[in-house]
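Researcher: Please predict.
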Amino acid sequence: MTETPSLVLVANAGDGSISAFRLSDGPLERLAVTDGLAGCSTFAVDPARDLVYAAVKASAEGEQAAIVTLQLDRGTGALEQRSRLDLPQGGMNYLALCRDGAGLLGASYGGGYGVSCPVTDGVVGAAVSQISFPNLHSVLPSDDGRFAYFVSLGDDLVAQYSLNEDLRLTPLEPATVAAPAGSGPRHLVLNEAQDAVYVLTEFSAQVLHFARDTQTGTLELRGAADAFDPTKSLEHSRFGADPRAEHLIWGADLHLASGGRWLWCSERTESTLGAVSVSDDGSVAPPDRFFTTEPQPRGFALSPDGAHLIAAGERSTTISLYAVDGSRLRLLEQAETGRGANWVRFV
């Protein structure tokens, strides 16, 4: 299956846990399940230091929402808590490391705020910058650590910042770039050349292509492609709607593959995965086929070599492992993980 064994971490929000798996030449092996991580639905990994930064929600026992630093044991898959930063303004929905692990960026959907925090020996410090937009859903830095991009689902925009030496955020000119009205931009990725940003929208399940100036960091919307199955008669969604009850579009996650040739995307109402094609000029085109996967696939990930994809479903207790061939998937196996699985990362 794979020559070099990989570790895979899966957040199970329903159980408040993270499962660790080993992917090798045999079956997908669940090594350990770390509990006590209330509502965990996102985490960032520092593989050089085997540190995992997990966002947890307020617990029934009275603990506040927080960012918890965990030490990963690669042999056993166990995670041990090292430190905790409480978040009285609300928990994070997306975390991303920058500056080789010296900084941590976070986006809070419910709290409507984003932060940049220093990290010292695995300890996340108080935010040095904080921004505010409705329903922030994700954030990513540029590879060189000079810029950061926050996606606001509530305001249909991407906010763009320079990231100063002390990790303070300074708005670029312009400070924001618009997404189509009512599209609900959700998650983003930067391509390897760093000259394009792709955003998947929640309410229209479109991949938006933004050209990126690598010197100034600014974005410009260039085009879009649908990433939902057109044969399923899904309709455009809206804020506050119940997509499952009304059979509405419900885009979720996206990841680049094959050196940037494909952008895999998930749609939750019909539980599909599809690969948007990316041309040499960065433009995008809709998938030519879709694959039914775990129920309500909020999160998935591709292996570093691009040979495998693992998908999790919010309405499932299993994950699915696929072999990837261009824009095609072949199911290899399923493995038990936990309730409400919604975030997957290879380590």
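Model: The longest helix spans residues 243-246.
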